[in-house]
Known about the structure:
Shape: elongated
Number of domains: 4
CATH class of the largest domain: Alpha Beta
Number of helices: 16
Amino acid sequence: MIPMVKEWFKKAFPTCNKIKSYIITSQSNNINREINDFQQDNNKDEIKLLFAISKLNEGLHLKNISGIMMLRNTRSPVVYYQQLGRCLTSENVDNHPIIFDFVDNIDNLELINFKHDLMKSVEENNKYRVSLGLCEERINFALYEEHEDVISKFRNIEKKITYNWYDNFNNLVKFYEVNGHVEVPKDKTNERLYKWCTLQRSLYNKQVLNEEFVQCLEAIDFKWDLRLERWKDNLKAYHNILETQYHSKILYYDIINENYYLPIYQFEGLSLEEEKIIKWFYRQINIFKKNEMEENKKKIFISELRNIEKYEENQWLKSIWKIKSFYNFMLTEYNIDCNKFKIAPKKDELKEQICSVFNNKSIIENTIDKNLPKSSVKSIVNLKEKEEMYFVASFIEENMYLEGMEDYIDHLNYIYYKKLLEILNNVSP
């Protein structure tokens, strides 16, 4: 809507090179800043537009408002008068503010006698002023109804749309009563109803679907985002597999980040459909790791993860994550891919170190193998590889005992870095 309104003003004022917009809603965190910027920015060569949703209805008056455009209808006469008051104030008495009621609130609220009532109030007020020896006030007010024919035609269209809408809605209710859900399939039998449901979702996403229609659909558990619902169904299917395979052995832990991990199970006797669900779930793990998961899914998926801090017996996972973080740091900051050139030591001593402190030897060893690079540094490397290995070794030696390296090195994984230095210092070009 905002781009559309700005385009209106561009066409109405083609010589104006700058149209500036401000936005405030009931959810805004910077309302005062936006309002102050709007009032203080007094450039006469630009048009200022303040878009307000569920705000500015009461308790606030703005100076130098030259007009109001009503783009949302209201059922409250009080709210309507408050909206008018944004420009019909004493601060704007020298101006000639214009109010565009594009949604015909004045008619919908049966306020068509507004002008008559206003002039009557002014007349009574002037009598009182004269009795006090004050001069009369003069208010120039004009009400234009050039839109009346257009509105009338649109209302006729709206009646037809509303009638057809409820006709289709009743068909959807019948479908729900028969099937127990409203996920209409795309087949010849339900083609028309399927297209109608698709249209409702599209209108809802564009925020133009009538609120009354929204409430009717939600009353029968209508789903606005089918992709999200299918995603939830897959997640539920994964949970069902875990319940039926509750005896499954944990192979290793997939470390997601410094806070979370996931157990990876060894499933047996899965059907083809169940195998697809397992693969789907593993894809979701990678999508989450890459921070590519949609926010609505991320909020759900994060509940699947286990918090490292919650389990004392799994604190060793932090040490493994710190090594992974170091390799990620080398790649992002210096473009050195330690996985590609196998810049990693053997993991035997690290495994022994952690197993000496924590239980679950099999899980510890498998987790280290799955989360850290393979250890196969070549004894002879080319010049570029030698330079990169030398840089990694120098970085570790110079920073190993500095406070900043606590993000990468601790008392458990220290032995891993010592082994890494030995290997890096023994390669030759």
